[in-house]
Amino acid sequence: MANYIPSTKLVERVCAGDMRAVSRLISRAEAGVAEVRSALAEIYRATGRAHVVGITGVPGSGKSTLVGKVVQRLRADGRKIGIVAVDPSSPYSGGAILGDRVRMSEIGTDPGVFIRSMATHGAIGGMARAAMDAVDILDVAGYDTIIIETVGVGQDEVEIARASHTTIVVSAPGLGDEIQAIKAGMLEIADIHVVSKCDRSDAARTLTDLKSMLVLGALGSGDDWRVPVIGTSAISGEGLDELIDAITRHRRVAFETELGQRRRRSVAEFRLLKTAEALLAERFVKARSDRTAEYTEQLLARTGDPYALACALIDHSLKTEQGSTDDENT
Amino acid sequence: MANYIPSTKLVERVCAGDMRAVSRLISRAEAGVAEVRSALAEIYRATGRAHVVGITGVPGSGKSTLVGKVVQRLRADGRKIGIVAVDPSSPYSGGAILGDRVRMSEIGTDPGVFIRSMATHGAIGGMARAAMDAVDILDVAGYDTIIIETVGVGQDEVEIARASHTTIVVSAPGLGDEIQAIKAGMLEIADIHVVSKCDRSDAARTLTDLKSMLVLGALGSGDDWRVPVIGTSAISGEGLDELIDAITRHRRVAFETELGQRRRRSVAEFRLLKTAEALLAERFVKARSDRTAEYTEQLLARTGDPYALACALIDHSLKTEQGSTDDENT
């Protein structure tokens, strides 16, 4: 630990845009070490400049390709871009889905782009908490646009994509029924709809379906914003200008309108509650260990039932936790 | 509420196999009403006869079709079958993916089959808790085999499929890269591997890949069990006999070996902790409301940071909770 730089010392370097410091601080935030919290508090107070864009879509919708194209366009305008890719890996292996593999070749060598994959294994709510910490760090480090990319399959992933100023939902033609049904759950959260792979012949129908759904439900639209449906093709480049324009217009909505203010409030509430849930689960995990085995045996022997034993475990844990040193509250 | 039958009264009817009582009690368990807990405690103590089979696979792997075929075969042996399908719907709309729609036509009219879809919206860990309660209720109601079906995409879904005696992971040829990467996270949890759609010409390669992966890693196999890889076709019926045989053999492993005993212990521990997490989150949600708005404004104004405010919210909530009537612990 001789070379360990205290997290509060890293803050200064992060503010100067030092990518190694950014990377280190994100790792510590992801690991959830208590030492990093005062640094993150300092970081948080300095945030507020970056435009945070959530991009989500079902597997196979081509969202990673789209992110690559969007980033190239935004870079042409000279903006520094951060990408936080949230990976729904299993708890059993640390698979990386949105991984840097493919994209590294296109945009990964550009020093104006910072890409970070975060795996979802770990504590409940921990993924949302860590992703939002990473966004803060990138904001303070001077990244103008920060993209949070998630696979829109679980509740957590969808929620994280919504914890942004601007949410883009990517659909694609020709996916299976099961995928389409997953998609249905995400449609309402979009500020901007993209139908990718518009070079395909069956894309027109996906576009029409989506537009008529929006007319019926008027989802997400209001006086300040009308949700657009944009067809894009990574091959021909079709629709990309229109998409960049929509992102830019929604950035103004996010920062300058009552609608944007309401959105920021709901993101702040989400963040407060997700962080609290994560901390609560963490405290519980720390405190519970000594009774878990005993209660598991009782459950197995059916001398107790799940609810009664779980209540007993909670009560015991919180009692223990209150008696211990209260390092969580500093 | 004149017609409200107390949950403890429903237990008797559940034990007699009354499907309406089963359905009602599952609904109450899913809603998480406190009134149902003593009934569920009684139910839990009477469980232990059913063989619980978890089936998971990525979207498009054809697992729902496979479940239909497996159920038909098991029904031919006279067994009563319960299916608990866990739906990863978004919190914003109550979409049903694994829904009963398709299957109802084939097996839904058979009185020996009980199908129940559960949506994943709701409290953290609530899905696992509710799914396991539903399994208990079906066990006590006399269902011989209970299938927990999940889309293997999020950590929660994969964990739930593992909370069983026998876990089947369904793969299929010809899915996209992103889907394949999601799949990688699930391979280690299988007691039985199925490669569906084996009538396709590219299925042989998927089978070979999977087999060589298993040889390399020896995942899941031990003295008592060797993880089989079974190719099936819903069209030709190929592999279905072999799959039913594997399920039957693994049932014996689950109930009669040391390996099975270890598995039951780890499922019991998972259940204890998931139930505790769900109850803890519930308590927190109940108690927190009066400070949330205030702390959200502080977060928005950046006069406080997420961790400090979340800690304050937790402390305030738990203090309030301890002062209130303790109806959770009965």
Description of the molecule:
2 copies of one chain form a homodimer. With 330 residues, chain A is α/β, with parallel strands linked by helices. Chain A has 3 domains: 46 residues; 210 residues, P-loop containing nucleotide triphosphate hydrolases (Rossmann fold), CATH 3.40.50; 56 residues, no CATH class. Chain A has 12 helices and 7 strands. In chain A, strands 3-2-4-1-5-6-7 form a 7-stranded parallel beta sheet, with helices on both faces. In chain A, helix 11 packs across helix 12. The longest helix of chain A has 43 residues. Chain A is globular, with a radius of gyration of 22 Å. The C terminus of chain A is likely disordered.
Write the layout of secondary structure elements.
The structure is a homodimer of 330-residue chains.
Chain A: H1 7-15, H2 19-31, H3 37-45, E1 51-57, H4 63-76, E2 81-87, H5 101-108, E3 113-119, H6 126-140, E4 145-151, H7 155-162, E5 166-171, H8 177-184, E6 192-195, H9 203-217, E7 229-231, H10 240-256, H11 258-300, H12 306-323
Parallel strand pairs in A: 1-4, 1-5, 2-3, 2-4, 5-6, 6-7
